[in-house]
């Protein structure tokens, strides 16, 4: 069995890959790298009644990986570049190659992934951490689910200046309901529900647009979306609206939060 541990800036994701390539997964909070790695490993063993002797190798990746030196409880450890792991895991989960993979974590990283060729092509500091940070400032909450719940009741046209607010018809390929300026119409008495929707719209529109531009500049039409912050129906709806504009298909694989950890483990399977 091979364990992959992705020590991210916000959460630690780990997977245990069995010889038949089935896998177990779990998420823990990212604390310091050693606590994150040992905690994730311990929890994985306990929850799945695994023996440490059954683990052949542990592969570490993510921002915290350099903080782990040497073996973990006598099991040899390896490290893999985080972007390489994103590429391997994203291709594996989606079954696709020749794609852009957009990993939405605390920040957002983009890779171009082909079999045998994974290239980091950039990203944006706008990501899941942006949602949590703005939510803390605006709503005094650190719960991502609270933001999604608020946004479900929100109306984007209350805070965003829409194309339809400034012209009578569609503008070029932009439909009337698309955003012309995020928060460009912010009223004095905006409801939290509308602000929450405005935050999610801004974040996922930026990510969608960066991804679409990256894909189009490489003659690629499919973008695989991974990372913990890629989950949720609102995120998918906003990304798909951007995809429609630029004729890009966003693909949302199952277990997307574990793409990086899986990619790490797969590098040694
Ligand atoms: N239960 C949760 N706990 C924390 N964040 C969550 C949770 N569910 C969704 N999120 C969102 O996911 C984001 C973190 O995503 P992820 O775990 O992929 O990032 P990371 O790997 O820690 O960071 P990075 O890859 O940028 O170093 C948070 O910023 C938040 O928006
Ligand atoms: Mg990450």
Structural class: alpha/beta
Can you count the helices?
Answer: 8
Over all CA atoms, what is the radius of gyration?
A: 20 Å
User: Beta-strand percentage?
Assistant: 15-25%
Overview of the molecule:
The strands form three sheets. A five-stranded mixed sheet has the order 3-2-1-4-5, sandwiched between helices. Strands 8-7-6-11-12 form a five-stranded mixed sheet, sandwiched between helices. The protein has a two-stranded antiparallel sheet with strand order 9-10. The protein is α/β, with parallel strands linked by helices and 269 residues long. Helix 3 runs antiparallel to helix 6, helix 4 packs across helix 6 and helix 6 crosses helix 7. The chain folds into two domains: 92 residues, Nucleotidyltransferase, domain 5; 157 residues, ATPase, nucleotide binding domain (Nucleotidyltransferase, domain 5, 2-Layer Sandwich), CATH 3.30.420. The mean pLDDT is 96. The chain contains eight helices and twelve strands. A hairpin with a 2-residue loop joins strand 7 and strand 8. The structure holds adenosine-5'-triphosphate (ATP) and magnesium ion (MG).
Give a quick summary of the entry:
The chain has 8 helices and 12 strands. With 269 residues, it is α/β, with parallel strands linked by helices. It has a 5-stranded mixed beta sheet, sandwiched between helices. It has a 5-stranded mixed beta sheet with strand order 8-7-6-11-12, sandwiched between helices. Strands 9-10 form a two-stranded antiparallel sheet.
